[in-house]
Every structure is written in structure tokens, then in C-alpha cells.
């Protein structure tokens, strides 16, 4: 039995994007969550911005920040205008996975790991591309190396073909 086959997660967090560039990681995470009956958290890294919050805050509209928690359903995501991510959550739920999403407000692997830890994730799934990030991703801290340095939670890396390591 390989290391990946020996895992029995109860909560899986996966680094995704709304454009679909990391769909291979999302599909692998859905498969792992379905196989083990685990909850799934889709962490959308592309929503982080230095200028705006992905979800309205208490400063932007009276009481709007209290309307949403850290994890969002497909319905919440539709209301927020995030139909691509809402579709990803629905697809996971169609596979009988308890799937939720989180809209990142900060760049980097460290906020991803922190949310995963807070939500009880016992497995992280990352796309292989974070192992060889471009300049912008390095500046944002979106690297496999940063994720590995900030957690003891097991990490599975998925290549574009869907292979897990």
C-alpha cells in the first residue's frame, strides 16, 4: 500500500481556482472525499486581492459581513456572483460529497493551511503547478514549499493527468 492509499481523511481541503486551471486537483480531491466519506473544502485562491474582500464585509454594507461564514454553499456562491465555484461545489455534491467553498482574502499557501487547520482538515490536496510556480505565484507565496513548511497535515500533490503523489 502506498502512502496515498493508506490515507483515510475525514476532511479534505483542496487549492482550486474558478477558471479551472486546477480542476485536476479538484477532481482528485472529490474522488478522495467520496471514497472516504470526507467533507470537502474548495479553497479558491484566486479571490484574494489587496484592494477588496471576496465577501462583503461589515464595512461595506450594514450587516452584510455577518450573512456568510467561512464556508459557503453553492447557493451562497451564486448569491455572491461566483457561479463557476458554485458549479464546482454542486458537482462534488452530485458525487455525494459534503462540499463547501471558501473565498480567499489573502494570497499564499499559509492562509490556505490556516483555514484547513481551523476547519479540521486532515488532508491537503494541491496542484502540481505550485511545485514550480511562476514569479507572480512566488511573490504571492502560493508555492508547494510554503505549504509544506507551514503544516504537518499530509499533502497530496496532483499532476495534470490526475496522478497523486
The CATH superfamily title: HUPs
Number of helices: 6
Fold-level CATH name = Rossmann fold
String of helices and strands: EHEHHEHEHHE
What is the gyration radius calculated from CA atoms?
Answer: 15 Å
Q: Based on CA inertia axes, which overall geometry fits?
A: globular
What is the count of distinct domains?
Answer: 1
Strand order of the largest sheet: 3-2-1-4-5
Annotation, overall tally of beta strands: 5
Biggest beta sheet attributes: 5 strands, parallel
Keywords:
165 residues; alpha/beta; Rossmann fold; 5-stranded parallel sheet; 6 helices; 5 strands; 33% helix; globular
What does this structure look like?
The protein is an alpha/beta fold and 165 residues long. It has one domain: HUPs (Rossmann fold), CATH 3.40.50.620. Helix content is 33%, strand content 16%. It contains 6 helices and 5 strands. Strands 3-2-1-4-5 form a 5-stranded parallel β-sheet, with helices on both faces. The longest helix is centred in the N-terminal third of the chain and has 14 residues.
Mind sketching the topology for me?
Layout: E1 11-16, H1 23-36, E2 39-44, H2 74-79, H3 83-94, E3 98-103, H4 109-118, E4 123-127, H5 135-140, H6 144-150, E5 155-158
Parallel strand pairs: 1-2, 1-4, 2-3, 4-5
Helix pairs in contact: 4-6
Amino acid at each position: 500500500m502506498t502512502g496515498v492509499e493508506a490515507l483515510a481523511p475525514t476532511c479534505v481541503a483542496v487549492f482550486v481556482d474558478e477558471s479551472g486551471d486546477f480542476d485536476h486537483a479538484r477532481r482528485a480531491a472529490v474522488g478522495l472525499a467520496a471514497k472516504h466519506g470526507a467533507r470537502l473544502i474548495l479553497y479558491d485562491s484566486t479571490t484574494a486581492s489587496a484592494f477588496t474582500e471576496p465577501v462583503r464585509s461589515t464595512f461595506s454594507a450594514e450587516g452584510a459581513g455577518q450573512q456568510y461564514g467561512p464556508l459557503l454553499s453553492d447557493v451562497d456562491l451564486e448569491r455572491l456572483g461566483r457561479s463557476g465555484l458554485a458549479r464546482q461545489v454542486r458537482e462534488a455534491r452530485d458525487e455525494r460529497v459534503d462540499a463547501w467553498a471558501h473565498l480567499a482574502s489573502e494570497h499564499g499557501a499559509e492562509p490556505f493551511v490556516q483555514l484547513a487547520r481551523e476547519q479540521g482538515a486532515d488532508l491537503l490536496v494541491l496542484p502540481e503547478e505550485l511545485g514550480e510556480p511562476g514569479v507572480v505565484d512566488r511573490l504571492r507565496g502560493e508555492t508547494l514549499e510554503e505549504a509544506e513548511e507551514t503544516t504537518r497535515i499530509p499533502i497530496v500533490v496532483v499532476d495534470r493527468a490526475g496522478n497523486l503523489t
